[in-house]
Amino acid sequence: MGAYILRRLLLIIPTLFGIMVINFALTQFVPGGPIEQIIAQMQGEGDVFEAISGGGQEAADSSGGGDEKYLGARGLPQDFLDELEIEMGFARVVCGPDHVGEPDIRAPDCVKEEIPALERFVNMMWRYLQFDFGESYFRSIGVFELIAEKLPVSVTLGLWSTVIAYIVSIPLGIKKAVRDGSRFDTATSAIIIVAYAIPGFLFAILLLVLFAGGSYWQIFPLRGLTSDNWDELSMVGKVLDYFWHITLPVLASTIASFATLTLLTKNSFLDEIKKQYVITARAKGLSERRVLYGHVFRNAMLIVISGFPALFIGVFFGGSLIIETIFSLDGLGRLGFEAAVARDYPIIFGTLFVFGLVGLIVGILSDLMYVFVDPRIDFERREA
């Protein structure tokens, strides 16, 4: 097992490298960039796509200033645009052999030189291997610190949504398998399918209207993870306040998870219940509970465990932009969306690297859970 884990760990390197290469290459073809976004904000456009439109070119031509590459410059000083490129890592200052002191774009013997995309990618990956993710272009804060700041919201939504989904869906799926075809099975199937069909954002709005003072009851708070007087509360009060705030967001983000996991558990148990070893165990006089949880459970849970990494990464790290927006939560979902709109490349690539690495490690942990549930599985022997 040790050799298998070592091989999987070594495979993380080319896999993560491939993820970064593909996404870095895609950004080279996306219109606009962080500099265009800054120009748009300075000119009051509010939208990078307007700033690089033909109208911006006409204004730049009429003013006689700006860089042709940035169609929305509208007369901004060329020195300012050059400094932006250098500060964001798209260019560097190259000075003559007789230059004294630090390189300065304003010096007569120094010029700006564009950094090729390949070189920028290599430099970025070298920093990332040292876990140096740089600073946000627009927030003046390190990417790692920014992720840590937003992480509590995603931890709350992802962790509790996953735990609740498994706690409810697995016992429910087992009971549906045991009572297959009964009224209970039919009724619960109808309920979870309806729940699956309801969009998460619509259910979130419904919860707000019903229980957060929208039109009916003011039972739960409308926004945030904690109350304003959080620091003044006792330890028990802080715990209760935390759960009071997360109830509605967690319910809204969990509702769609029940159907897939419940039906997956049910079908997996049905397949195992029909096998010969179950018939033999029952013939030996074993109780139904021991047959289900002593024999069937271990085999049936393998397919459920196999879906854990995708569920964990999707809910925990993906974040839910709509849920976070509706409940006024500042998490990774909103962070990723704002970074993509603003073309904040350090945040985009830094979070991609971190989450990609964690996702690959979780995949290895999933294999270890296979072995924990069923020790008969030997990945080294299967690969041989």
Q: What would you note in describing this structure?
A:
It is found in: Cell inner membrane; Cell membrane. InterPro entries: MetI-like, MetI-like_sf. It is a multi-pass membrane protein. This protein is mainly alpha-helical and 384 residues long. The protein has a domain at 144-383: MetI-like fold (Orthogonal Bundle). 68% of the residues lie in helices and 3% in strands. It has a two-stranded antiparallel sheet with strand order 1-2. Mean pLDDT is 78; it is low at 46-67.
Cα distance, first to last residue? Answer: 12 Å
Return the CATH architecture of the domain at 144-383. Answer: Orthogonal Bundle
Helicity level: 55-70%
List the uncertain runs: 46-67
Membrane topology: Multi-pass membrane protein
Keywords: Cell inner membrane, Cell membrane, Membrane, Transmembrane, Transmembrane helix, Transport
Transmembrane segments: 9-26, 153-174, 186-212, 242-265, 300-327, 347-373
Subcellular location: Cell inner membrane; Cell membrane
Q: What descriptive keywords fit this protein?
A:
mainly alpha; globular; cell membrane; 384 residues; transmembrane helix; MetI-like fold; 68% helix; 2 strands
Ordered list of secondary-structure elements with their pairings:
Blueprint: H1 2-27, H2 34-42, H3 48-51, H4 54-63, H5 78-87, E1 91-95, E2 110-114, H6 117-129, H7 143-178, H8 183-197, H9 200-211, H10 235-254, H11 257-273, H12 276-283, H13 288-306, H14 308-317, H15 321-326, H16 332-342, H17 345-373, H18 379-383
Antiparallel strand pairs: 1-2
Helix pairs in contact: 1-17, 7-10, 7-11, 7-14, 8-11, 9-10, 11-13, 13-17, 14-17, 16-17
